[in-house]
Amino acid sequence: MPITSFRGEKSVAEIADVMFERLTPKQREKAEAAILKANPRLNDLSTLPKGAVLQVPDLPELRAKARRAADDPPAQIASEIGEALSSYGKQLAQRTQQGLADNKAHSALIRSDAFKRTLEKSPELKEQAALTTKALELRGKELAERAKTVEAAIQGMLKDLKAASA
Q1: For residues 22 and 77, is the Cβ–Cβ distance under 8 A?
Q2: CB 52 within 8 A of CB 6
Q3: Among the four residues 20, 92, 110, 139, which has the most C-beta atoms within 10 Å?
Q4: SS (H, E, C) the chain
Q5: Which tens digit of pLDDT belongs to each residue from 28-82?
Q6: pTM (two decimals)
C-alpha cells in the first residue's frame, strides 16, 4: 500500500480530494471510508501532526493523483522537520534579541542620573543596583552563548536531515 504524509488537511474529505482525482460525491464517500479504515487515527485530525505518515488505500476504481503517488514521505517528513527547526531557530533568535534589548534597557535605567540620585539616598539600594548590574551582564553573556550553541545545534540537525533525505 502506498504512503503519503498528512499536510494539515481539515477533513478526511479534503484528504480524499488530495489523494484521488475527480471524485464524485459517492466516490468521495467510498474513499473517505477506505482512508479511515487504513488510517484510524484520522478520526481526530486535531491531534495528528503535520508530516504524519498516511497509508493511501488501494482503490482500483479510483485514480490516485500522480503528484501524491510520486511523493516521498521520508523526504517530506525531513522537510517538515527542517522547517520546524528553522522556525524554532528564528523564534529563539527573536527572543534572545528581545532579552538582550531588555537587559540593555534595564542597565541604562540603572545608570541613569535620576536612578543614581535615588541610590545615593540608600546604601542598601546602591549595593542591590550593583548586584543587579552584574547579574544583567552575566545574563546577557549567557543568552548570547546559549543562542550560539542552539543555533549551531539546529544547523547541525538541518545538515543531517538534508544528508539523510538526499
Answers
A1: no
A2: yes
A3: 20
A4: CCEEECCCCCCHHHHHHHHECCCCHHHHHHHHHHHHHHCHHHHCHHHCCCCCEEECCCCCCCCECHHHHCCCHHHHHHHHHHHHHHHHHHHHHHHHHHHHHHHHHHHHHHHCHHHHHHHHCCHHHHHHHHHHHHHHHHHHHHHHHHHHHHHHHHHHHHHHHHHHHC
A5: 999 999 999 999 999 888 888 888 888 888 888 887 776 544 456 677 677 778 8
A6: 0.55
